[in-house]
Amino acid sequence: MRRVFILVLDSLGVGAMPDADRFGDAGTHTLDHIVRAAGGLDVPRLAAIGLGNVPGVTGVREAVAPEGAFGRMAERSPGKDTSTGHWEMMGCPLTEAFPVYSEGFPKEILDPWLERTGLPGFLCNAPASGTEVIERLGEEHIATGKPIVYTSADSVFQVAAHEEHFGLQRLYEVCEVAREILTPYGVGRVIARPFVGAPGAFERTYNRRDYSLEPPQDTVLDRLKAADVPVVAVGKIEDIFAGRGVTQSIHTEGNADGMRRTIELAREPGGGLVFVNLVDFDMLYGHRRDPVGYRGALEAFDRQYVELEAELREDDLVLISADHGNDPTFTEGTDHTREYVPILAAGPGVRGGVDLGTRESFSDLGATVEAALGLEPSGPGQSFLEAILP
């Protein structure tokens, strides 16, 4: 059985979509603006595959003879968040956006949460930057035992708490209760945001957990699993799909660890899908508006990708993409941005120089995965497998 690797460079957008102004994101371009703000970008392997040939990309030099296929994908769903992007990739676009709570969460949500958990209360309950809010309220949280509740422009109920003073397992438990309460409201994710350290030096950890709604219909992952095709989730993929359609899950601690585990998987026999989310691009650099750090992370990924290539078999297929944008130079808040995402197809058997153009939906990626693994694509996407394989 062939293997397919999906590498999601979380938040690497490649230019504002035509409706970006409706989301307050006109003029954004995560990749090009990183290059401009950080003074360049050295990603020779991605460039050779065709990253600079993606429509709308000007910050990376075009390859004269790209070794892979290249293009960009438009998001059909009305959103710009993790769940919406990943679900659409796997053939489950949304017709309605998740609800957001720009004024904080109402009493009818918070009161039963406090009652069921026995919490003494909460802090914040407003849109906030995760790093800023723990710096501002972390000491009070430790003193009172009240967790920090905050949200963003996404449909998320985030709970920050100190791993030692509050307890990591307790944080997970109160988030599980919140997930139950919030499911009828359609809130996309509950996120446990643990941190450690002392006032003035708090740091978030990789013990984050996402508690997602289940996708409203079958996804490519569900169909692969039903057909006995292995589906290995690396990073937060299992959380995003609420555990559905996954046969093996590997928790990771950032990009480097995620790529290391992916390289180890490539050395193993067998086939199926390896679905990888590399969260640091978004969590550490996009949201924190750090283009220099984002540049460094892309360059580190490029080097590790070379290591992955050395382990690929003749019929392996690698698809590199993103789930939304998060332009670190955009000064309007610290949230995701409504952008096209790149699609690069590579591997020993992939035809080079194929221009995939602008795809109408992220679902084209999932349809291609189904076709590559022997299934008849049954979702809304259009497979481009025949275009990229000789």
Q: Indicate the CATH topology of the largest domain.
A: Alkaline Phosphatase, subunit A
Query: Structural class of the secondary elements?
Result: alpha/beta
Low-confidence parts: none
Distinct helical segment count: 13
Give helix and strand order, one letter per element, not per position: EHHEHHEHEEHEEEHEHEHEHHEEEHH
**Text of the CATH class of the largest domain:** Alpha Beta
Helix content: 25-40%
Q: Would you identify the CATH architecture of the largest domain?
A: 3-Layer(aba) Sandwich
Q: What is the overall pLDDT average? A: 97
Question: Which descriptors would you attach to this protein?
Answer:
390 residues, Alpha-Beta Plaits, Alkaline Phosphatase, subunit A, six-stranded mixed β-sheet, eight-stranded mixed β-sheet, alpha/beta
Could you write a compact summary of the structure shown?
This protein is of the alpha/beta class and 390 residues long. It contains 13 helices and 14 strands.
Characterization of this structure:
By secondary structure, the chain is of the alpha/beta class. The protein has 2 domains: 3-94 and 216-388, Alkaline Phosphatase, subunit A (3-Layer(aba) Sandwich); 107-212, Phosphopentomutase (Alpha-Beta Plaits), CATH 3.30.70.1250. The protein contains 13 helices and 14 strands. It has helices spanning 30-38, 44-49, 82-89, 107-117, 130-144, 163-182, 220-226, 237-240, 255-266, 280-286, 291-309, 363-372, 385-388, and strands at 3-9, 69-73, 123-127, 148-151, 156-162, 189-196, 203-204, 209-212, 231-234, 248-250, 272-278, 317-321, 341-346, 355-359. It has an 8-stranded mixed sheet with strand order 10-9-11-1-12-13-2-14, with helices on both faces. Helix 1 (30-38) packs across helix 11 and helix 4 (107-117) crosses helix 6. The protein is globular.
